[in-house]
Amino acid sequence: MPELPDVVGFQRYLGSTSLHQKIVRTKVSDRRILDGISAQQLSRHLAGRAFDETARHGKYLFARAGDEGWLVLHFGMTGSLGYYARGRRAPEYARVTLDFANGNHLAYVNKRMLGRVGFVLDLVAYVEAQGLGVDALSRRLSGRMFARLMAGRTGPVKARLMDQSLVAGVGNIYSDEILFQARLHPATDASVLNYGDIKRLYRVMRRVLRVAADKGGDIDKFPRGYFLPRREKGAPCPGCGGQVERIVVVGRSGYFCPQCQKRKQ
Ligand SMILES: [Zn+2]
Predict the structure, then answer these.
(1) I need a labelling partner for 227 at 20 to 30 A (CA). Which of 64, 66, 106, 133 fits?
(2) What pTM does this model have?
């Protein structure tokens, strides 16, 4: 389930494999994945051009095709990228494939079809139109700004952390890690958090996302004591050894340690 750290990994991957290579053909094998654009239009935007830059906002990845505009990639629940050499078979569930002049290919892979592929001229306007808040790792997002964004919010803190219109990038999985490290129960109402809680939540969120992004979202490489490798009902908590529990918050399954994360009333 790609969240900010995974998308940082995809950004690095696209940057290291696919920049400055002329695109000769775009194949769309399932047009349901396209967002606001036809296969012909997408193909026309990309033909003869090369990506010269990548960008990311929250869980969205962008690749700029010169002055033409930006390819938009959202990975949904199961999306990823696959770059493969001439003569190799496309990965399973490749929905959009770009053929480069050097004979290699870049595939946007998505099993469950919940992601999106689009093309936009203006990145900033697109991010705004999607209603996305500030990126969770943006330099602009200070502790003070985070506190302002959280002020007056109600509902489970886990839901607020996952609310892409407040801060973009954190999803169901990383919110569990962040709340564990901030020692906050996922169902604690955001309105009962004090300034100290919110500052701690901000610091932990930034640290967790930076560390995870640095590892490209690879949980096996996380430092000791991280929660995600134990994110399973009944697993031993990395903090106290107690049992991890499952909880449903706004329709999503979350995990937490009832010992380490006491509910604030
Ligand atoms: Zn614990």
Answers:
(1) 133
(2) 0.96
